[in-house]
């Protein structure tokens, strides 16, 4: 299903549609076939207009077996198109999915446009004569379903035929079987009278430029590589594999020709410590993980704060706690990255809002880390990391450079002070081995200026205050918070991270209905933009939708003493637009 969804996505992108996707796959590597735990799904939203989410409830669904139907049918709109592989609805499969009766026969699906297609039988007929085993033949069913979906929405088969030729060129029988199954699915839709409608989605009017389809993990990797080039640094990644962050390691490991060095460490602690070493030696340093790994990195992150070194830490959030829901999305690590270290240990925190936005966030995070000499936390989530959308390829020459100046030696014969600060409280980034710049590093508290070990109580208070103020100073350079809509009104929807698209779409619909509703989406969560408090006080009520139990709401209440309304969801799925609209309407006059 992931393959089928990816091909439908790429084909729609080539057709000029705006797209957004939501892959949804099981955590078990080999879950028992036909069980609810083993269902793999892929949701695609394509349109002729700008879209910001993978969709509301879906207009059409293809269910390959009873378990897939039971897991996803709640997301299908009333009256929506439901295509099922009727061959899969045998007694054993129904029992595995927990059905007491066959839903194709008991009228429980009468609210949908139900189309029963014998996909297994039709696929076996299509590949007959290729000397395939029955198992190999049945694995072509996804291409049959793909061909049928391509016919329904006027998609060309050519991109997928090219994919088959490239993917299976060493397996000519399998390639031919997949070609036949794909064509058979298209022909079935075209020749049978079972389907009364097909649909055509025109090209979207996107800004002029060259586009490619990008997942959030890909975009973040590319953004980080771009940031390295903008600052004339080599990029070092120290990482330990973990879902859903591993693809950043996979992507960056492909680009050694751009000066990228990737190190797969033996554990999370080694990964972050190797990155700290790279930062100390003057490189752009990065470590990636998800919530459980961020917990293990905590002590070393505190060391990076104490050393005041530029370091990027990426947290691709997933459902928790513990192993939780490793392949499902959540944004419940906010308080962890804000406070999950011993002592007073503040760090700037930035969050991406969409797959394509991950590119810009990677650049902005490094710009702040290098300017302020501080670790910066980048928050993504499983929905953004694995989802995709069109990304407009940028012109590198149009991007603003990230200037970094290392001290070259003592000035005017004065001794070098490793913790002497500029107007924003950033210390100098001295490269080890530079003559005259010898200084002490370590996890013990620093004396102001020299960086020598200090146990003086007043100095400790001073350094705690200084490091906290340095993070607050980031607000001076990140710019003011923007608002979509009027600057005041009845309701402000305040969001961060992945819910951006659902919130933006919901607010646009409410505005079209005449409601005085606006939307503000936070990129920086520590520090908050300087004008955020003023914006919040201009609205009668503030609604904060989060895929957690109210973490940003807690921070906003604490910082601004404003009574917020939370909309919380922790189901491993992103918000539906209607969920936000319905909650917002309960708060409107």
UniProtKB/TrEMBL annotation:
PANTHER family, alphabetized: 2-OXOGLUTARATE OXIDOREDUCTASE SUBUNIT KORA (PTHR32154:SF20), PYRUVATE-FLAVODOXIN OXIDOREDUCTASE-RELATED (PTHR32154)
Gene3D superfamilies recorded: 3.40.50.920, 3.40.50.970, Pyruvate-ferredoxin oxidoreductase, PFOR, domain III
Keyword Membrane: no
Domain Pyruvate:ferredoxin oxidoreductase core, chain residue ranges per copy: 490-559
Species whose genome carries this gene: Blastopirellula sediminis
Sequence ranges assigned to domain Pyruvate flavodoxin/ferredoxin oxidoreductase pyrimidine binding in this UniProt record: 236-448
One Pfam family in the UniProt entry: POR_N
MF terms in GO: oxidoreductase activity, acting on the aldehyde or oxo group of donors
Domain Pyruvate/ketoisovalerate oxidoreductase catalytic: 2-186
Protein name: 2-oxoacid:acceptor oxidoreductase subunit alpha
Gene Ontology annotations of biological process type: response to oxidative stress
Entries under CDD domains matching the protein: TPP_PYR_PFOR_IOR-alpha_like
The keyword Oxidoreductase is assigned to this record: yes
InterPro entries cross-referenced by the UniProt entry: 2-oxoacid/accept_OxRdtase_asu (IPR022367), PFOR_II (IPR033412), Pyruvate:ferred/Flavod_OxRd (IPR050722), Pyrv/ketoisovalerate_OxRed_cat (IPR019752), Pyrv_Fd/Flavodoxin_OxRdtase_N (IPR002880), Pyrv_flavodox_OxRed_cen (IPR002869), THDP-binding (IPR029061), Transketo_C/PFOR_II (IPR009014)
Keywords: Oxidoreductase
């Amino acid at each position: 299903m992931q393959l089928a969804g990816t091909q439908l996505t790429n084909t729609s992108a080539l057709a000029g549609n705006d797209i957004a996707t939501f892959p949804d796959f099981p955590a078990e590597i080999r879950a028992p076939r036909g069980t609810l735990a083993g269902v793999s799904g892929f949701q695609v939203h394509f349109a002729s207009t700008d879209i910001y989410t993978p969709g509301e409830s879906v207009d059409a669904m293809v269910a390959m077996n009873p378990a897939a139907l039971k897991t996803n049918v709640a997301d299908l709109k009333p009256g929506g198109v439901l295509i099922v592989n009727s061959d899969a609805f045998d007694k054993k499969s129904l029992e595995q999915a927990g059905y007491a009766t066959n839903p194709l026969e008991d009228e429980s699906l009468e609210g949908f446009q139900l189309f029963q297609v014998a996909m297994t039988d039709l696929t076996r007929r299509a590949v007959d004569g290729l000397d395939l085993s029955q198992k190999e033949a049945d694995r072509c069913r996804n291409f049959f379903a793909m061909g049928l979906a391509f016919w329904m929405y006027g998609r060309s088969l050519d991109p997928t035929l090219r994919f088959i030729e490239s993917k299976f060129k060493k397996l000519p029988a399998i390639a031919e079987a997949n070609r036949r199954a794909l064509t058979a699915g298209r022909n079935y839709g075209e020749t049978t009278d079972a389907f009364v409608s097909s649909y055509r989605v025109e090209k979207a009017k996107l800004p002029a430029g060259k586009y490619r389809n990008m997942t959030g993990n890909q975009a973040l990797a590319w953004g980080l590589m771009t940031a390295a080039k903008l600052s004339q640094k080599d990029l070092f990644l120290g990482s330990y594999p973990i879902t859903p962050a591993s693809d950043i390691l996979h992507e960056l490991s492909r680009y050694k020709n751009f000066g990228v060095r990737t190190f797969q460490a033996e554990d999370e602690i080694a990964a972050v410590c190797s990155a700290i070493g790279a930062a100390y030696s003057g490189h752009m340093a990065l470590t990636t993980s998800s919530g459980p790994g961020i917990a293990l990195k905590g002590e070393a992150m505190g060391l990076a704060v104490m050393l005041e070194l530029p370091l990027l830490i990426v947290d691709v959030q997933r459902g928790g706690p513990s192993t939780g829901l490793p392949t499902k999305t959540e944004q419940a690590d906010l308080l962890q990255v804000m406070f999950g270290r011993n002592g007073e240990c503040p760090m700037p925190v930035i969050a991406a809002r969409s797959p394509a936005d991950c590119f810009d966030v990677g650049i902005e995070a490094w710009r702040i880390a290098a300017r302020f000499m501080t670790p910066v936390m980048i928050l993504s989530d499983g929905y953004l990391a694995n989802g995709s959308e069109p990304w407009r390829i940028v012109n590198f020459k149009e991007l603003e450079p990230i200037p970094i100046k290392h001290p070259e030696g003592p000035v005017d014969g004065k001794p070098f002070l490793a913790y002497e600060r500029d107007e924003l409280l950033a210390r100098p980034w001295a490269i080890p081995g530079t003559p005259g710049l010898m200084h002490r590093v370590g996890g013990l508290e620093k004396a102001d200026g020299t960086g020598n070990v200090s146990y003086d109580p007043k100095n400790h208070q001073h350094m705690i205050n200084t490091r906290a103020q340095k993070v607050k100073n980031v607000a001076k350079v990140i710019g003011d918070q923007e608002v979509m809509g009027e600057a005041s009104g009845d309701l402000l929807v305040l969001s961060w991270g992945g819910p951006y698209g659902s919130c933006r779409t919901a607010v646009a619909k409410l505005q079209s209905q005449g409601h005085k509703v606006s939307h503000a989406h936070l990129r920086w969560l520590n520090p908050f933009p300087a004008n955020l408090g003023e914006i919040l006080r201009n609205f009668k009520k503030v609604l904060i939708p989060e895929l957690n139990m109210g973490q940003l709401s807690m921070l906003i209440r604490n910082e601004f003493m404003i009574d917020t309304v939370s909309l919380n969801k922790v189901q491993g799925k992103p918000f539906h637009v209607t969920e936000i609209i319905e909650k917002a309407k309960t708060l409107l006059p």
